Amino acid sequence: MYERIRHLREDKDLTQTQVATYLNCSQRIYSNYERGEVDLPTVILIKLAELHNTSTDYLLNRTNRKKPYPKD
């Protein structure tokens, strides 16, 4: 999961600081998320899925389909 989060960030040419600002956390905390040193809180997981326009299942390696689910 953590590699996907990093790759998605890098694909958008975003820095850890930029993503951390979006998530309202420090760069250090976000770096810990990317390295898998800290479990992702659900609210952060959802925000990352929204930022990268994907599903939480994709971030959690439950699917290889990047496209998000349609919202009802």
Automatic annotation (TrEMBL):
UniProt keyword tRNA-binding, yes or no: no
Keyword DNA damage: no
Keyword annotations of the record: DNA-binding
Domain HTH cro/C1-type span(s) in chain numbering: 5-59
InterPro entries in UniProt: Cro/C1-type_HTH, Lambda_DNA-bd_dom_sf
GO MF term set: DNA binding
PANTHER family according to UniProt: HTH-TYPE TRANSCRIPTIONAL REGULATOR XRE, TRACRIPTIONAL REGULATORY PROTEIN-RELATED-RELATED
Protein name, per record: Putative transcriptional regulator
